[in-house]
Amino acid sequence: MQSSNSHDATGRQHRTHNENTNQQRSARRRSKSADEIADAYADVADKLARWRRLDRLFAGRYRRRQFEHANGRVLDVACGTGRNFRYLPSSSEVVGIDISAEMLAHARSELDRLELDGAVHQMDAQALDFPDDSFDTVISSFSTCTFPDPIAALHELERVCTPDGEILLLEHRRSDAAPLAWLQDWRADSHYEKNGCRLNHEPLETVEQAGLPVENALTAFFGLVTTIDATPR
Question: How many Å apart are CA 19 and CA 202, to the nearest integer?
Fold first, then answer.
């Protein structure tokens, strides 16, 4: 006869398996097109630009740690309103791309305000209009959660990065703290429908599925934030 502890362990395993399966099915179900993502961010571009000081307070330290040593010609994929620009070395040449024209209008203003050498272009991260090996460093922040096909986008980041370059990501993820993870799961569907963002995704798993070699990965703030250093294959 099995002990009650054995039954409990088996039950927990089944529940965990079912929860993971449900999350995977839900993630597959939710997939906006690039145009729908652009529309979603067009509606909030001005609001996000106004919140830049709040972003510096909560995310600034992570942006600085992850991107302050980005060197050479730098591509910021899904640059949004340009929040990463201020944390890049002043010697870098910066190119930002985003699917949203409204977000890019603020990114252009940020480049001018910081007097950085750079440009921004409207472009789909899943089909970058750059030749192979165009950039020494490719960065992106809080973006794999929004790409309709994040694997395709990561392959594009890899393609345009020089063979000896770096791919630096700053992402949010499903928390390691159970109450926060429950809240993320509960809000996931409605949050995606409104904002085009997968609230409870696992970016490191996505990077590994894309086949990018991961050199370093760290999590912080109850596991909600993760930084990933990868290299082209």
Answer: 14
How many folded domains does the chain comprise? 1
* Interval 133-161: pLDDT, tens: 999 999 999 999 999 999 999 999 999 99
**16 in a domain, yes or no?**
no
pTM as predicted: 0.81
CA distances from 95 to 45, 63, 74, 118, 232 (A): 19, 17, 6, 5, 19
Determine the structural domain holding residue 185 and report its residue range: 30-230
In a domain, 221, yes or no: yes
**CATH number, position 53:** 3.40.50.150
Calpha distance 48→36 (Å, rounded)? 18
Q: Which tokens belong to 195?
A: 């904002």
pLDDT, tens digit, 9 for 90 and up, residues 27-56: 444 577 776 766 666 565 666 666 677 778
Q: Is 98 in contact with 123 (CB distance < 8 Å)?
A: yes
CA distances from 125 to 24, 79, 90 (A): 23, 10, 24
